[in-house]
């Protein structure tokens, strides 16, 4: 997890190196931080949709939730939901032997058919789910407890502050740090800098990063 104040100092250092003055207000800085994270997130997310391979950056946003399916068989998405990876159900057979089962996803076109077909009728042994209009629908409806692995939406990073002698001073108590790890800092910083008009090549960014570490003894 990268401290947002460290990121602020780092990006200010980089912009000063290329002689671009820092004229961002605090709200602008916070918004650009979130925008930078979302650009990296969306890029890796689109790659995931095509390849089903999670990048190291995207893995940070994997989340797990255990829920009880209501009697209606309809469960709202988690509040921070972005994409379902898998849904599992613990099943106990007639002999008392239990194991985790994958709940199979059924697309919208097929959802109606499986409810009318006795040959494909979902059971507790072969449960199904479908995503529709902001909810997850399950069959059979009495599925009970399920476990969902999903990609969450990134949190909004916030550089919080208090005013001291008319100047904003970093306040960790009102701040929200980034969720990504240090190895992704340059990726996000590169996007952040491009949003304020600073376009550095990867080699230039890496060189400045090494200089920054030497000068500040920073872990970034």
What would you note in describing this structure?
- It is a single chain.
- The chain has six helices and ten strands; from the N terminus they run αααβββββαβββββαα.
- With 220 residues, it is α+β, with helices and mostly antiparallel strands.
- Strands 1-8-3-4 form a four-stranded antiparallel beta sheet, with no helix packed on it.
Task: Give the CA-CA distance, first to last residue.
Answer: 11 Å
Uncertain runs are none
Q: How much β-strand is present in the residues?
A: 25-35%
Main beta-sheet strand count, sense and barrel state: 4 strands, antiparallel
Mean pLDDT: 90
- Determine the structural class based on helices, strands and strand pairing: alpha+beta
SSE series: HHHEEEEEHEEEEEHH
Strand order of the largest sheet: 1-8-3-4
> Rough shape?
elongated
Work out the helicity level: 25-40%
Annotation, overall tally of beta strands: 10
Kindly provide the radius of gyration, computed on alpha-carbon positions and rounded to a whole number of angstroms: 23 Å
Helical run tally: 6
Question: Key features?
Answer:
220 residues, alpha+beta, 4-stranded antiparallel β-sheet, 4-stranded mixed β-sheet, 6 helices, 36% helix, elongated
Draw up the topology in text.
Blueprint: H1 4-17, H2 26-51, H3 56-59, E1 62-68, E2 74-76, E3 81-92, E4 98-102, E5 104-105, H4 108-116, E6 128-132, E7 135-139, E8 145-152, E9 161-164, E10 167-170, H5 185-195, H6 202-216
Parallel strand pairs: 5-6
Antiparallel strand pairs: 1-8, 2-7, 3-4, 3-8, 6-7, 9-10
Helix pairs in contact: 1-5, 1-6, 2-5
């Amino acid at each position: 997890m990268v401290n947002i104040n460290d990121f602020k100092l780092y990006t200010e250092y980089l912009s000063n190196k290329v002689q671009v003055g820092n004229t961002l207000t605090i709200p602008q800085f916070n918004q650009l931080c979130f925008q930078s994270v979302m650009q990296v997130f969306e890029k890796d997310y689109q790659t995931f949709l095509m390849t089903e391979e999670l990048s190291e950056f995207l893995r940070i946003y994997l989340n797990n939730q255990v829920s009880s399916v209501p009697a209606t068989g309809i469960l709202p998405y988690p509040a921070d939901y972005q994409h379902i990876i898998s849904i599992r159900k613990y099943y106990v057979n007639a002999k008392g032997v239990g194991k985790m089962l994958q709940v199979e996803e059924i697309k919208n076109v097929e959802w109606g058919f499986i409810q009318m077909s006795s040959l494909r009728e979902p059971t507790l042994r072969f449960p199904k789910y479908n995503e529709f209009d902001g909810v997850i629908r399950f069959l059979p409806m009495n599925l009970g407890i399920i476990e969902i692995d999903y990609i969450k939406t990134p949190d909004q990073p916030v550089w919080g502050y208090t005013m001291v002698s008319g100047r904003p001073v970093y306040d960790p108590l009102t701040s929200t740090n980034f969720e990504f790890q240090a190895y992704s800092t340059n990726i996000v910083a590169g996007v952040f800098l491009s949003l304020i008009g600073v376009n550095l090549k990867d080699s230039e960014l890496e060189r400045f990063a090494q200089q920054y570490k030497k000068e500040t003894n920073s872990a970034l």
